Amino acid sequence: MSAGNAATEEDQRASYLRDAQNKAICLFDEIERDLIRPGVSEQGLSDQIHALAAERYGVTAHWHKRVIRSGPHTLMPYVENPPDRIVEADDILFVDLGPVFEAWEADFGRTFVLGGDPVKHRLRDALEPVFLAAKSHFQSNPDITGEAFYDIACELAKQAGWEFGGRIAGHLVGSFPHETIPNDRITLYITRGNLDAMSRLNPLGQKRHWILEIHLVDRARQIGGFYEQLLTVD
């Protein structure tokens, strides 16, 4: 393949991922406007989101489980499966979805606050600046390892006055299903132990695309917030 064709193909792959994320943004706008409210259970909200995504966006597959966490459940990382909980009037909650749009994966997470608790609002409002600071560091250091970048995310969380709540700070994303290696919980993730450069190409010689996850927590107050979107595509 010529260099020109390779560049065109890479632009197309990035465009597909950007388009999938843009659709996820629109979906989340509808979720916030129509579905986020007190009195609904986390499972009920998940079911309503699934129905909305299918009806309005034709989403029939989600490449990972739908994650709805409220109140103290917001402390828990993705791998946990807490019991169902009713969203309360003064809650903080987050939604983490992996919808597949025309065979391309989106992975998107946002945090919402019900009520006027200033600490919860401050936590929610800290998420995007930490995300952007981490992204800026990555753009200046594209050959950084997954482990080193995880440590950067943890340090940025600390500088912002919070604790980083997850064991990973992101993962690969792409066409469905994205690159997998059986039982590999390290090199496909932004996590400790991943000593590979994040700029390493995939087995086809293509650029690998990454999702960045920011999970900030305050364990004393039992609250957390989550922000997730593409790292390698603007």
Please sum up the structure shown.
This protein is α+β, with helices and mostly antiparallel strands. It has 4 helices and 9 strands.
* CATH-defined superfamily: Creatinase/methionine aminopeptidase superfamily
String of helices and strands: HHEEEEEHHEEEE
Q: Mind describing the biggest β-sheet?
A: 4 strands, antiparallel
Question: According to CATH, what is the class?
Answer: Alpha Beta
Descriptive report:
This protein is 36% helix and 19% strand. Strand 3 and strand 4 (104-105) form a beta hairpin. It has four helices and nine strands. With 234 residues, it is of the alpha+beta class. Strands 6, 7, 8 and 9 form a four-stranded antiparallel β-sheet that branches. The model has no long low-confidence stretch (mean pLDDT 91).
Q: Descriptors for this entry?
A:
single chain; about 230 residues; alpha+beta; Creatine Amidinohydrolase; 4-stranded antiparallel sheet; 9 strands; about 35% helix; globular
What is this structure's SSE topology?
Elements: H1 3-34, H2 42-57, E1 67-70, E2 92-97, E3 100-101, E4 104-105, E5 108-113, H3 118-140, H4 146-159, E6 163-164, E7 170-173, E8 209-218, E9 223-230
Antiparallel strand pairs: 1-2, 2-5, 3-4, 6-8, 7-8, 8-9
Helix pairs in contact: 3-4
